[in-house]
Protein backbone atom coordinates (compact mmCIF):
# COMPACT_ATOMS: atom_id res chain seq x y z
CA UNK A 1 0.00 0.00 0.00
CA UNK A 2 1.38 3.37 -1.06
CA UNK A 3 0.53 6.15 1.39
CA UNK A 4 0.44 9.91 0.85
CA UNK A 5 0.20 12.07 4.01
CA UNK A 6 -1.47 15.49 3.63
CA UNK A 7 -1.49 18.01 6.49
CA UNK A 8 -0.36 21.63 6.85
CA UNK A 9 1.26 20.77 10.19
CA UNK A 10 4.76 19.33 9.89
CA UNK A 11 4.29 17.74 13.32
CA UNK A 12 1.19 15.85 12.23
CA UNK A 13 2.84 14.73 8.98
CA UNK A 14 5.90 13.38 10.79
CA UNK A 15 3.77 11.84 13.56
CA UNK A 16 1.63 9.90 11.07
CA UNK A 17 4.80 8.79 9.27
CA UNK A 18 6.35 7.67 12.57
CA UNK A 19 3.27 5.66 13.54
CA UNK A 20 3.23 3.95 10.15
CA UNK A 21 6.92 3.10 10.38
CA UNK A 22 6.97 2.01 14.02
CA UNK A 23 3.77 0.14 14.75
CA UNK A 24 3.85 -2.88 12.53
CA UNK A 25 2.09 -1.39 9.53
CA UNK A 26 4.82 -2.87 7.32
CA UNK A 27 2.57 -3.32 4.33
CA UNK A 28 2.15 0.46 4.11
CA UNK A 29 4.98 2.58 2.76
CA UNK A 30 5.04 6.33 2.43
CA UNK A 31 5.32 7.81 -1.05
CA UNK A 32 4.92 11.47 -0.15
CA UNK A 33 4.21 14.22 2.38
CA UNK A 34 2.18 17.26 1.30
CA UNK A 35 1.41 20.47 3.18
CA UNK A 36 -1.67 21.52 1.20
CA UNK A 37 -4.08 20.31 -1.43
CA UNK A 38 -2.16 21.57 -4.46
CA UNK A 39 1.01 19.81 -3.37
CA UNK A 40 -1.02 16.68 -2.61
CA UNK A 41 -2.50 16.56 -6.12
CA UNK A 42 0.91 17.03 -7.71
CA UNK A 43 2.44 14.20 -5.64
CA UNK A 44 -0.63 12.00 -6.18
CA UNK A 45 -0.32 12.35 -9.99
CA UNK A 46 3.36 11.37 -9.77
CA UNK A 47 3.14 8.54 -7.24
CA UNK A 48 -0.44 7.17 -7.57
CA UNK A 49 -0.99 6.44 -3.86
CA UNK A 50 -3.38 3.70 -2.74
CA UNK A 51 -4.16 5.49 0.53
CA UNK A 52 -4.20 9.16 1.52
CA UNK A 53 -4.51 10.71 4.99
CA UNK A 54 -6.17 14.08 4.47
CA UNK A 55 -6.40 17.14 6.69
CA UNK A 56 -9.34 19.43 5.91
CA UNK A 57 -8.31 22.92 7.06
CA UNK A 58 -5.28 23.83 4.96
CA UNK A 59 -3.99 26.91 3.11
CA UNK A 60 -4.05 27.21 -0.70
CA UNK A 61 -6.45 24.29 -1.30
CA UNK A 62 -8.47 22.70 1.49
CA UNK A 63 -9.16 19.03 2.10
CA UNK A 64 -12.69 18.93 0.70
CA UNK A 65 -11.60 20.40 -2.65
CA UNK A 66 -8.61 18.03 -2.71
CA UNK A 67 -10.74 14.94 -2.04
CA UNK A 68 -13.03 16.00 -4.89
CA UNK A 69 -10.04 16.17 -7.28
CA UNK A 70 -8.49 12.92 -6.05
CA UNK A 71 -11.76 11.07 -6.61
CA UNK A 72 -11.66 12.16 -10.28
CA UNK A 73 -8.37 10.34 -10.83
CA UNK A 74 -8.47 7.12 -12.91
CA UNK A 75 -7.66 5.02 -9.82
CA UNK A 76 -8.81 7.11 -6.85
CA UNK A 77 -7.05 6.36 -3.56
CA UNK A 78 -8.69 5.25 -0.35
CA UNK A 79 -8.93 8.39 1.81
CA UNK A 80 -8.76 8.71 5.60
CA UNK A 81 -9.75 12.21 6.73
CA UNK A 82 -7.73 13.28 9.80
CA UNK A 83 -9.24 16.53 11.04
CA UNK A 84 -10.15 18.59 14.09
CA UNK A 85 -13.47 19.48 12.44
CA UNK A 86 -15.57 17.01 14.39
CA UNK A 87 -19.14 18.02 13.53
CA UNK A 88 -21.38 15.48 11.87
CA UNK A 89 -22.00 17.46 8.68
CA UNK A 90 -18.28 17.77 7.93
CA UNK A 91 -17.83 14.02 8.29
CA UNK A 92 -20.88 13.35 6.09
CA UNK A 93 -19.60 15.77 3.42
CA UNK A 94 -16.21 14.05 3.35
CA UNK A 95 -17.74 10.58 3.18
CA UNK A 96 -20.19 11.61 0.44
CA UNK A 97 -17.26 12.87 -1.62
CA UNK A 98 -15.67 9.45 -1.37
CA UNK A 99 -13.54 9.40 1.79
CA UNK A 100 -13.58 5.97 3.48
CA UNK A 101 -12.80 6.98 7.04
CA UNK A 102 -12.78 9.92 9.43
CA UNK A 103 -10.41 10.28 12.39
CA UNK A 104 -10.82 13.21 14.76
CA UNK A 105 -7.90 15.23 16.11
CA UNK A 106 -6.56 14.82 18.71
CA UNK A 107 -5.88 11.10 18.19
CA UNK A 108 -3.74 8.47 19.84
CA UNK A 109 -1.19 6.39 17.93
CA UNK A 110 -3.41 3.32 18.38
CA UNK A 111 -6.46 5.11 17.00
CA UNK A 112 -4.48 6.21 13.96
CA UNK A 113 -3.10 2.72 13.35
CA UNK A 114 -6.55 1.14 13.50
CA UNK A 115 -8.10 3.80 11.26
CA UNK A 116 -5.35 3.34 8.68
CA UNK A 117 -5.73 -0.44 8.66
CA UNK A 118 -9.47 0.00 8.22
CA UNK A 119 -9.21 2.19 5.11
CA UNK A 120 -6.54 -0.13 3.66
CA UNK A 121 -8.93 -3.09 3.63
CA UNK A 122 -10.15 -4.01 0.15
CA UNK A 123 -13.75 -2.97 -0.57
CA UNK B 1 -24.28 39.99 18.41
CA UNK B 2 -24.94 37.50 21.22
CA UNK B 3 -22.27 36.52 23.70
CA UNK B 4 -21.35 32.98 24.68
CA UNK B 5 -23.08 31.01 27.41
CA UNK B 6 -21.44 29.12 30.26
CA UNK B 7 -22.05 25.87 28.36
CA UNK B 8 -20.32 27.29 25.29
CA UNK B 9 -17.25 28.08 27.36
CA UNK B 10 -17.33 24.67 29.01
CA UNK B 11 -16.84 23.25 25.54
CA UNK B 12 -13.42 24.89 25.33
CA UNK B 13 -12.49 23.75 28.85
CA UNK B 14 -13.40 20.19 27.88
CA UNK B 15 -11.52 20.52 24.58
CA UNK B 16 -8.31 21.59 26.36
CA UNK B 17 -8.60 18.68 28.79
CA UNK B 18 -9.31 16.20 25.99
CA UNK B 19 -6.42 17.46 23.85
CA UNK B 20 -3.82 17.05 26.58
CA UNK B 21 -5.26 13.73 27.78
CA UNK B 22 -5.18 12.31 24.24
CA UNK B 23 -1.67 13.56 23.46
CA UNK B 24 0.02 13.10 26.85
CA UNK B 25 -2.33 10.86 28.90
CA UNK B 26 -2.49 13.57 31.54
CA UNK B 27 -5.28 16.10 31.88
CA UNK B 28 -4.43 19.68 32.82
CA UNK B 29 -5.65 21.32 35.99
CA UNK B 30 -8.00 24.19 35.14
CA UNK B 31 -6.84 27.00 37.42
CA UNK B 32 -9.29 29.79 36.50
CA UNK B 33 -11.87 31.00 34.00
CA UNK B 34 -12.77 34.67 33.88
CA UNK B 35 -13.68 37.65 31.74
CA UNK B 36 -10.30 39.09 30.88
CA UNK B 37 -9.00 42.58 30.26
CA UNK B 38 -5.83 44.13 28.88
CA UNK B 39 -3.86 42.86 31.86
CA UNK B 40 -3.97 39.26 30.61
CA UNK B 41 -0.37 38.20 30.09
CA UNK B 42 0.36 35.83 27.25
CA UNK B 43 3.17 33.27 27.11
CA UNK B 44 6.01 32.95 24.61
CA UNK B 45 4.33 30.77 21.97
CA UNK B 46 0.92 31.66 20.58
CA UNK B 47 -1.52 30.10 18.13
CA UNK B 48 -4.52 32.06 16.87
CA UNK B 49 -7.44 30.77 14.81
CA UNK B 50 -10.06 33.17 13.45
CA UNK B 51 -13.78 32.40 13.26
CA UNK B 52 -16.04 33.53 10.42
CA UNK B 53 -19.48 32.72 9.02
CA UNK B 54 -22.26 32.56 11.58
CA UNK B 55 -19.78 33.61 14.25
CA UNK B 56 -16.94 36.10 14.48
CA UNK B 57 -13.85 36.35 16.64
CA UNK B 58 -10.89 34.17 17.41
CA UNK B 59 -9.34 31.73 19.82
CA UNK B 60 -5.84 32.27 21.19
CA UNK B 61 -3.79 29.46 22.72
CA UNK B 62 -0.75 30.71 24.63
CA UNK B 63 1.88 28.33 26.00
CA UNK B 64 5.40 28.58 27.40
CA UNK B 65 8.34 26.95 25.63
CA UNK B 66 8.88 24.32 28.34
CA UNK B 67 5.34 23.02 28.04
CA UNK B 68 5.54 22.67 24.26
CA UNK B 69 8.92 20.93 24.48
CA UNK B 70 7.49 18.39 26.95
CA UNK B 71 4.41 17.86 24.80
CA UNK B 72 6.55 17.14 21.74
CA UNK B 73 8.85 14.76 23.63
CA UNK B 74 5.82 12.82 24.87
CA UNK B 75 4.75 12.46 21.24
CA UNK B 76 8.22 11.05 20.41
CA UNK B 77 9.13 14.17 18.43
CA UNK B 78 12.89 14.81 18.45
CA UNK B 79 12.88 18.10 16.53
CA UNK B 80 12.34 20.73 19.23
CA UNK B 81 13.15 23.68 16.97
CA UNK B 82 11.30 26.98 17.23
CA UNK B 83 9.51 26.11 13.98
CA UNK B 84 8.14 22.90 15.47
CA UNK B 85 7.19 24.59 18.77
CA UNK B 86 5.20 27.18 16.80
CA UNK B 87 3.69 24.40 14.70
CA UNK B 88 2.64 22.64 17.91
CA UNK B 89 0.89 25.64 19.48
CA UNK B 90 -0.84 26.34 16.16
CA UNK B 91 -2.04 22.75 16.00
CA UNK B 92 -3.48 23.01 19.53
CA UNK B 93 -5.39 26.17 18.52
CA UNK B 94 -6.55 24.50 15.30
CA UNK B 95 -7.77 21.43 17.19
CA UNK B 96 -9.66 23.41 19.86
CA UNK B 97 -11.30 25.58 17.20
CA UNK B 98 -12.18 22.60 15.02
CA UNK B 99 -13.63 20.66 17.95
CA UNK B 100 -15.91 23.63 18.67
CA UNK B 101 -17.85 22.85 15.48
CA UNK B 102 -19.39 19.85 17.23
CA UNK B 103 -21.41 22.34 19.29
CA UNK B 104 -21.52 25.45 17.10
CA UNK B 105 -22.11 23.52 13.86
CA UNK B 106 -20.85 24.03 10.32
CA UNK B 107 -21.74 27.76 10.42
CA UNK B 108 -18.54 28.19 12.41
CA UNK B 109 -15.91 28.63 9.71
CA UNK B 110 -12.34 28.50 10.95
CA UNK B 111 -9.10 29.80 9.48
CA UNK B 112 -5.73 28.09 9.32
CA UNK B 113 -3.76 28.98 12.48
CA UNK B 114 -1.52 32.01 12.77
CA UNK B 115 1.56 31.27 14.89
CA UNK B 116 3.41 33.96 16.79
CA UNK B 117 6.45 33.93 19.05
CA UNK B 118 6.66 36.53 21.82
CA UNK B 119 4.11 37.62 24.40
CA UNK B 120 4.24 41.30 23.56
CA UNK B 121 1.20 42.67 21.77
CA UNK B 122 -0.65 39.37 21.84
CA UNK B 123 -3.51 40.55 24.04
CA UNK B 124 -4.02 43.55 21.75
CA UNK B 125 -5.04 41.11 19.02
CA UNK B 126 -8.16 40.03 20.88
CA UNK B 127 -11.06 42.30 21.88
CA UNK B 128 -10.84 44.15 25.21
CA UNK B 129 -12.93 41.67 27.23
CA UNK B 130 -12.25 38.08 26.05
CA UNK B 131 -13.07 34.97 28.06
CA UNK B 132 -9.89 33.55 29.54
CA UNK B 133 -9.29 29.97 30.69
CA UNK B 134 -6.01 29.37 32.52
CA UNK B 135 -4.64 25.91 33.22
CA UNK B 136 -1.56 24.11 34.47
CA UNK B 137 -0.04 21.00 32.95
CA UNK B 138 3.17 19.35 34.21
CA UNK B 139 3.87 22.49 36.32
CA UNK B 140 3.57 24.76 33.28
CA UNK B 141 0.93 27.52 33.25
CA UNK B 142 -0.87 28.24 29.96
CA UNK B 143 -4.03 29.95 28.79
CA UNK B 144 -6.76 29.97 26.18
CA UNK B 145 -8.54 33.22 25.23
CA UNK B 146 -11.95 32.77 23.63
CA UNK B 147 -13.24 35.77 21.73
CA UNK B 148 -16.32 34.51 19.89
CA UNK B 149 -19.66 36.13 19.20
CA UNK B 150 -22.74 34.92 17.39
CA UNK B 151 -23.72 37.20 14.49
Q: What features would you describe in this structure?
A:
The complex is a heterodimer of chains A (123) and B (151). The longest helix of chain A has 13 residues, at 10-22. By secondary structure, chain A is an alpha/beta fold. Chain A is globular, with a radius of gyration of 13 Å. In chain A, helix 2 packs parallel to helix 3. The two termini of chain A are 14 Å apart. A five-stranded parallel sheet of chain A has the order 2-1-3-4-5, with helices on both faces. Helix content of chain A is 44%, strand content 20%. Chain A has one domain (2-120): Rossmann fold. With 151 residues, chain B is α+β, with helices and mostly antiparallel strands. Chain B has one domain: CheC-like (Chemotaxis protein chec, 3-Layer(aba) Sandwich). Chain B contains four helices and seven strands; from the N terminus they run H-E-E-E-H-H-H-E-E-E-E. In chain B, strands 1, 2, 3, 4, 5, 6 and 7 form a seven-stranded antiparallel sheet that branches. Chain B is globular, with a radius of gyration of 14 Å. The mean pLDDT of chain B is 89. Chain A binds chain B through residues 8-12, 14-15, 18, 57-59, 83-87, 89-90, 104-108, and chain B through 18-19, 22-23, 72, 75-77, 79, 83-84, 87-88, 90-91, 94-99, 101-102, 105-106, 110-112.
Helix-strand topology string of chain B:
HEEEHHHEEEE
Structural class of chain B: alpha+beta
Rg from Cα of chain B: 14 Å
Q: What is the count of DSSP helices of chain B, taking H or I runs of 4+ residues?
A: 4
Largest sheet, strands/sense/barrel of chain B: 7 strands, antiparallel
Oligomeric state as shown: heterodimer
Q: Major sheet of chain A: size, sense and barrel closure?
A: 5 strands, parallel
Instruction: Please tell me the CATH architecture of chain B by its name.
Output: 3-Layer(aba) Sandwich
The level of helicity of chain A is 40-55%
Query: In CATH, what is the class of chain B?
Result: Alpha Beta
Distance between the termini of chain A: 14 Å
Q: Can you write the helix and strand succession of chain A as a string? A: EHEHEHEHEH
Strand content of chain B: 25-35%
Which class of secondary structure composition applies to the elements of chain A?
Answer: alpha/beta
Task: Assign an overall shape of chain B.
Answer: globular
Report the CATH topology name of chain B: Chemotaxis protein chec
Organism (chain A): Pseudothauera nasutitermitis
Domain Response regulatory (chain A): 2-120
Protein name (chain A): Response regulator
GO biological process, one term (chain A): phosphorelay signal transduction system
Amino acid sequence: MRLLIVDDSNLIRTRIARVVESTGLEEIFIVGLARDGREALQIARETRPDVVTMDLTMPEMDGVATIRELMRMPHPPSILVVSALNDKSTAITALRLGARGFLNKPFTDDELGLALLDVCKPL
Amino acid sequence: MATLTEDDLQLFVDAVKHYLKATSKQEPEITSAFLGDSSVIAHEFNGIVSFMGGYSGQILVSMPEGMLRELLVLQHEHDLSETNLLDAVGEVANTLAGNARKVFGPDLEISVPTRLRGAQGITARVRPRPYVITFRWHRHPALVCVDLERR
